[in-house]
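Hey, can you fold this one?
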Amino acid sequence: MIRRRLYQSFVVHLDPVLLALLGLLLLISLAVIYSASGGNWSRVSAQMTSMLVACVALWIVANMPLHYLMRAAVPAYLLGMVLLIAVAFFGEITNGARRWLNVGVTTIQPSELMRIAVPLMMAWYFEKHEAMLTLKNYFVATLLLLLPVVLIARQPDLGTSIMIAASGFYVLFLAGISWRIMLTFLVIIMASMPLAWSMLHDYQRLRIMMLLDPAQDPLGRGYHTIQAIIAVGSGGMFGKGYLNGTQTHLEFLPERTTDFIFAVYSEEFGLLGNLILLSLYLLVIARGFVITANASTYFTRLMAGSITLTFFTYVFVNIGMVSGILPVVGVPLPLISHGGTSMVILLIGFGMLMSIHTHKKLVQT
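Sure. Predicted structure:
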């Protein structure tokens, strides 16, 4: 009886459906990373460690009452902004980008914190003004979004800035911003394209040009895209078999364990394997939408919807990038690619979804 009560208290705030789907994706990640790394157990064990830390974070957040999430919104956002400003002045430069901040014990990438902090802050702001939302509120929320996006884009980190912009846009959309305002923003964005193009770094412009014709520089900027497309296409219907991918194991494919891991998976498991993987992703997204639809408050509805739609964007951008229909922007395949920070942030988001699903009553702060 005591054991049962302890077990129930441990799992009461975990959503079994979502947890099972996430578990399957994490198992696929370990298998593909083992193959992509050429049987490198140290890389696999590092991923397992990241998964363990991320799962602990998921459990902690899932058990966190919703009013604690609301209380964390402003401090998390302000901390992230302070760290981003510190990166701009004191950050370490690696490969021409200033993204990391040395805090003595370790180095951190503050932009990762903003993946959660920005939608959390925007959802908190809209919750506080739910009774009478005006154009002014949408304008302030947009500023809350643009400030970190601009700072991150200047590092430069185009992939992260796009993902954060998407997560914030989804909060605006779910908060009921009118189509007229959205169309106005779209016209402004389209009109500012020439200016935005001139502000891009040379390598960013080249990435976009390579999208149109990667063959114009097959051994340089177009190499990643060409090799990924070859790997995806050569998998055929059923793939070449686990550990038998030639593009992978003959080391033609770059960034095999991170950004281009979907090409490794496609080559070895083919179209059938891709359909299974996409089905798992769609089920996770569908479960997220169910939780969003059943959310009990405005804040939780905005947060759950943003987390779910942002997860979809991660999947779409990475697969589109690997398949050659989107430019290479350095976005990992969620829950599959090697990487500890991304794994922890994603599972914290899913922990929030579970908290939203199991804590039905929000205590106002």
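The CA atoms of residues 229 and 323 lie 6 Å apart. Let me know if you want another pass with a different chain boundary.
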